[in-house]
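dumping this here before i forget
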Amino acid sequence: MRSQPRGAQVFLDGHRLGPTPYLGQNLPSGMHQLQVKAPYYQPIRRRIRLTANVVNKQQLTLARGQGAITVLSRPAGATVTLDGHRQPGRTPLTLTQVSAGQHRVEIGKAKYYAQTLSVTVPVGATERESITLKGGNLVMYHGQWVSKADKATALLKQARIKARIKADKIAALLKQADVALAIKPLSTSAGSKALAAYQAVLNLDAHNPSARQGIKQVAMDYVTMADRLSRTTSIAQANQAAKTIKGYLSKARSIWTGVSVPKGLKQRARRLKQSNTVVKTISGFDYPFYMAITPNGRYAYVTSSRNNTVAVIDTVTNTVVKTISGFHNPISIAITPNGRYAYVLNYKSNWFRYTVSVIDTATNTVVKTISGFDHSWDIAITPNGRYAYVTNSCGDTVSVIDTATNTVVKTISGFNHPDSIAITPKGRYVYVGTARGYTVSVIDIATNTVVKTISGFYGPLGIAITPNGRYAYVANKGGSSNENGTTVSVIDTATNTVVKTISGFDTPDSIAITPNGRYAYVVNVSNGTVSVIQLP
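structure:
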């Protein structure tokens, strides 16, 4: 005996034989009453004949039984869902033709808690369920009726979860920004990464103090980079540095409109932009040769060799305010560090006996004349004012004057027609330009010996060193065959190499730099003008 479903109970003539599948032996032959039963199924009854020594095979399929469910609710009017399927109508409601067995019944009504029952439906009978719904003042939350307190608790929990997720994300972004700035401080790439992280934080929390402060710090970092570049840029990169500084400041202002700029930064950036360009030309000289500027920067003294005079320029107005006479073909000039005296070289005096005239700058009169030189061309005074160095072109030597006694105390040899000369601000080295050797020699003042020779010039006839000692500007007057020079070379004194060449001059003969390092004045012999270079 086999049946569908398995496990049905087999009865023969009212006696239970066992569950299917069933194999019965030694059953009495003849006619019998067979009955097969299974829970929730319609039983099968039939008569069968059993014959001795013959197997009677039976394959039976039981039909599922049906019943009904009556659902009552207080209050009435609730919906009924049977095994997940919404039923038509509302309570009181009877569901017919329900298959016998276990069922899941859910009763729900607006503003009441839904209730779920497990209902067993008997075959051919009606199961009655009566439910009292609880609530009456519930609110809907995520498709369910819940109490206001439960909804508030759920909302609070959800808010806390969102807040925690948000806080974790903000913390990660702030850490990302801090790491970027820590790994590459004062870097444009680091600033961009940090800025993106800080802005992402503000998108989550518009008033986050750490992000707002971080953005201000990034803006200030760009200003710091601009300020540092304005102070450390080299001559060769001056113009590009000015553009970069402008970009940094523009970026800083776009990040934080209230960013402050250090005092003097704009002026330094402006000087970088205009550096190595002529910004002023002063006329009215007769074959001007050399120039020197007083330590306070107020006056510039210019020698005019043809009319045997020295002109005094007011650097505030860039006009000639005094003309001193009594010289003999004056060429080079130097002023003592205290500004008290100006030493002027007379190229021709008393039948080619070369002399040095000393001007008292308080009265602008010649108070002393020193002799004993050989075609002297240029002069420079040590920063302590103790000595004056004079180039002797034809003698291929450099003379050292003791300014206390105004006498020559030392003569240094080994040059090829030395002409121009300048001393570093700290008094460590003397730079000497040799017109025929097209070189610049470096003298160590401590030993009064030549320690370095730099090449690559074109008749160097004027040298000036910036107040910070970083650069030496050399005027290239031209060659020995009367070719006029048009350039000024810039030497980096740290490496003693030429790092920049500036053009646009007409036989530049001498050069002087203001004490504040902002301008260099260049004398143009051929056209009788003075060019003004703005320095970085």
